[in-house]
Design a protein that fits this description.
Layout (H helix, E strand, L loop, with lengths): L9 E4 L2 E11 L3 E8 L2 E8 L12 H15 L6 E5 L4 E4 L7 H6 L8 H13 L2 E3 L6 E4 L2 E4 L4 E3 L18 H10 L4 E4 L4 H8 L13 H11 L2 E6 L5 E9 L4 E9 L8 H13 L6 E4 L6 H6 L23
Parallel strand pairs: 14-15
Antiparallel strand pairs: 1-2, 2-3, 3-4, 4-6, 5-6, 7-10, 8-9, 11-12, 12-13, 13-14
Helix pairs in contact: 5-6
Length: 328
């Protein structure tokens, strides 16, 4: 597991405030976050200076700006750079929503429909004397088109081209499987109850920590974990709790998912989808059980990818005290 990096609630870029929604990824050059400002989504990349034993960097923020211009000139499909803050070493990019090619391959889909596009990118990059990072986590699919969402590029070398190196990771090759084993250890889903103490610790490592009111928090969390009808966990090989789903069900007609969260260091690995599928099966299966939940706006795309749709037939009665706070 990577060392936990606490996500700040807001970041300032060129004097403009962005609310951080979730961590998207941690690369050798920086952390990327999904953010929003004035109702518009964006990606913020925060440059870091953590050591990397296989890559040498110069001035990272200047390199990002230079590489962005080189890729645009080469005709590579990339997100627009919306702002760059040289002092804070932060970049704001257009948000390209969709699964990465890595996600698709990991989940059993084929990258074959996108190979013609990536080879077109390869030709354009080579003509400009460039290589990009052809690893499939850097390519997002939106409306049938692939986007290179990183700005990193280097001088062309055949050994690091797509056809020589990148293609090895665009299907379930031995190289892809070895990467999965090393970087994405096996996650076990099972039905079990957790203690209030373990769940509160887990909340600190997720984006769920602000969904509960302050009033009698610890007392009510203890009741939650002890009485909820469905309690599923996801644990890594060391037994660390990295995912949780709590749900209420009558085991006959419906399942209401009250809580679903994944450790920030384990997002984009299909854990949430696996938890929902397991809960649905445990409650009785899709032929008998309808699933309902309340979703934060930022989570709606995830639930839509799980096959869910917005509903307009839900009513509520809510007179509880609610003082907002975040578990820290």
């Amino acid at each position: 597991m990577m060392q936990e990096k606490r996500i700040e609630e807001q970041l300032i870029v060129c004097g403009k405030s962005y609310r951080i929604l979730r961590l998207l990824g941690h690369g050798k050059g920086g952390y990327s976050y999904l953010a929003e400002s004035e109702g518009q989504p964006a990606v913020i990349k925060q440059i870091h200076h953590e050591p990397c034993d296989y890559y040498a960097f110069g001035n990272k923020i200047e390199a990002e700006q230079r590489d962005y211009e080189r890729l645009r000139a080469a005709g590579i499909r990339i997100p627009r750079m919306l702002a760059i803050d040289m002092d804070a070493e932060r970049i704001v990019k257009e948000y390209i929503e969709g699964p990465t090619v890595f996600d698709l391959v990991r989940d059993g889909a084929s990258a074959e429909p996108y190979l013609a596009q990536v080879r077109d990118m390869t030709d354009k990059a080579k003509a400009a004397g460039l290589n990009v990072d052809w690893f499939p986590t850097n390519f997002v699919v939106r409306d049938g088109l692939i986007w290179y969402v990183d700005y990193e590029c280097n001088e062309y070398m055949d050994e690091w081209s797509f056809n020589t190196w990148g293609i090895r990771y665009w299907s379930r090759t031995p190289e892809f499987e070895a990467y999965l084993k090393e970087h994405m250890p096996e996650i076990t889903i099972r039905e079990e109850r957790v203690t209030a103490e373990e769940y509160i610790g887990f909340l600190k490592r997720t984006n769920l920590g602000s969904q509960y009111p302050r009033e009698r928090f610890e007392e009510r969390i203890a009741r939650l974990v002890n009485t909820v009808s469905i309690s599923l966990t996801a644990r890594n090989e060391q037994g660390l709790l990295v995912g949780v789903l709590f749900g209420l069900t009558d085991y006959a007609y419906w399942l209401y998912v009250t809580d679903l969260g994944v450790d920030r260091d384990y997002t984009r690995r299909g854990i949430g989808k696996r938890l929902i599928k397991a809960a649905h099966q445990l409650a009785g299966g899709e032929k008998d059980i309808a699933v309902y939940l309340i979703a934060n706006e930022s989570a709606v795309p995830f639930y839509e990818k799980c096959g869910m749709k917005r509903a307009d037939d839900v009513m509520k009665y809510n007179h509880i005290e609610w003082t907002e706070f975040t578990v820290t």
